[in-house]
Write a structure and sequence with these properties.
Order of helices and strands: HH
Shape: rod-shaped
Number of helices: 2
Helix content: over 70%
Number of strands: 0
Radius of gyration: 59 Å
Keywords: Coiled coil, Membrane, Transmembrane, Transmembrane helix
Largest sheet: none
Strand content: under 5%
């Protein structure tokens, strides 16, 4: 019986070893199952992250396009404003030239007016002197028939001339 007992002992030990190995295999199978679940979750998460990455890349591309478009629009606006500024500067220069010309004409008109006024005063004094002399019988007007109406007409012509020159 000793062989039988030994065989039984061996059988019990083998059975115990087999049970332990079955338990280890069962644990490994559970671990494999859990790892497969984790792998599926990781793959799912990876696909989700890849999708999000794709969305972010599309957004980034759109933002770059928008930025480029805005930069181009700003450049166009800046160019347009520069053109307007140049046009305004040209207008200022033209207006300044016109103002300088007008000021020169005003000075010229004032000089002419002063000259005409002094000429009119001389003529008036001469006419008054000759008229008063003619009235008193002291002097004659030689070839000159200047009277008050003629002086008034000369004065009116000078005023009209000055006014028309200032308007043009």
């Amino acid at each position: 019986m000793s062989e039988i007992d030994e065989a039984n002992k061996d059988a019990v030990e083998l059975k115990r070893g087999l049970e332990e190995k079955a338990w280890v295999i069962e644990g490994m199978e559970k671990e494999i199952s859990e790892l497969k679940k984790e792998k599926l979750e990781i793959e799912k998460r990876e696909r989700d992250l890849e999708r999000k990455l794709g969305v972010l890349e599309v957004r980034e591309t759109e933002e770059r396009s928008k930025k480029v478009r805005l930069e181009e629009e700003m450049k166009e606006k800046i160019d347009e404003l520069k053109k307007k500024a140049n046009a305004l500067q040209a207008e200022v220069a033209r207006t300044k030239a016109e103002l300088d010309q007008t000021n020169a004409e005003i000075v010229e008109f004032e000089e002419r007016a002063t000259l005409l006024e002094s000429n009119m005063l001389e003529v008036k004094e001469g006419v008054e002197g000759k008229t008063s002399g003619a009235i008193k019988g002291r002097s004659k007007v030689k070839g000159w028939l200047l009277g008050v109406p003629a002086v008034a007409m000369l004065f009116a012509a000078a005023v009209v001339f000055l006014c028309s020159r200032q308007r043009s």
